[in-house]
C-alpha cells in the first residue's frame, strides 16, 4: 500500500501525520510480519544489565552513539526537538533514521530478522510484541529496570499507568494473559477509544450522549435524519484491515463482556461467533448501514476523523487523539466535545487502546547506551516536554496527567480530560494475546464487511471462527 492509497489523498503520510497530529500505527500492514515464520522464544537470565555496577551516572557512556529506527510521527518530532537535552546530559549522540508508517514495520522486521544489530532501539506497538518477541528479537528490559546501577532513581516505573506497562509484558504462550516479570517494551504514548461529537448539533436537537449501545444506535439514527447540512450519524472505521476492529468496535465489544477467544486444553477457541457476539456484530453493521458514511468499506482512521472535522459526521467512535486534532483548523473546530461512549450492561467502560512504545534490539552491540536512552525517552523529564510542548496527547505517566500544565492544554476541549480520567483505569489491550493476531484480526474485519454487505451474521461469523481455529493454533 503506497502513501496515497493509505490516506486516500494526494499527500504523503508525513503530511497527514502533521495535519492530523497522530498516525498511531492504525493502518500498519501485516504481510511482512506474517511471512517471518515467528516462533520459539528466549529467556534473559544472562542480561548485560547484570554487568553494570556502581552508582548510576548519566555520563557513564559519554562518547557512545545510539542508533534509532523510528516511525515518522509527532512523537519522533518531539524527540528530535528535545534530543539536545539528552546529548548534553549524557554525552551520548543520537542518530535517528525515520521511515513512513506505510513501510516502517517492513524496515523493522528486516532489521530484526538480520540479527545484525544495525539499530539499537526502535518504536513498536504492543501487538508487535506478540510477533517480534517469540523469536528473541526483543531485549528483556526487566533486568535493566531492576538494576539500581543501571537506572536513575527518578525513573519510577510505578508512575506509568499500570495497564500501559503491563501491555509490554507477555510469556509468549498463546492465550496467556499479559503480565509477568519480562518487560519487552516501555510505553511512550497511547490512545484510548471514545466518542467525540458535535456539541452544537446536540444542543440544537436537545440531545445527550448515549449511555448504552442501543441508545447509541438510536442516537446515530436521529442525527443521521435531523443533523442537517448533509451530516451523517456516526463515523467508524471499515477498511479490510485489523485496525478496523481495534478502536470503537473492540471497545464496545469488550464493554458488553464479549471476548475474541477462549482457551481450552491449551488451544485458542474463537468466540466471535457466540450468540451475544453475533447479535452485537449484526447491530454494529446495521448501525453503519443506516447511519454511517457511504464508502465505509474504505474508511481508515483518516477518513473517519476527517469527516468529523469537515462537518460530515456528527459523531466519531475512535481514538481520542484522532478527534483531538479535528478541534483546530477545521470546520468543526470549537464545536466538538468528548464522552466515554456507551457503557456495558453493568456500567462497564472497558476500552481498547493503541500504544506506541520503545524497545531495545536484542542484537544491539550497544545495549548500555541504548538503555540510557530508553530510560530518558520515557522519563518524566522528556514526556512532560512531549506532552505540554509536543503532541503526546495521552500521556503514559500518571504524574504528568495530574499536572496543571498538562490539564491546561485541554482547557478548550470540552469533556476531553474528564473523558480521559473516566476511562483510563479500564483502558487496556482487550484482545487475547496470540502470535497470529494481525492475520486473525484482518479476517475479522473482512467478516464485518461481509455482514455490512447484507450476508447473515451468524453464518459469516461461524465460518470465520471455524477458519481461524486452525490458523491461530498452528
TrEMBL record:
InterPro entries in alphabetical order: Bact_solute-bd_prot1, SBP, TAT_signal
Matching Pfam families: SBP_bac_1 (PF01547)
Protein name in UniProt: Extracellular solute-binding protein family 1
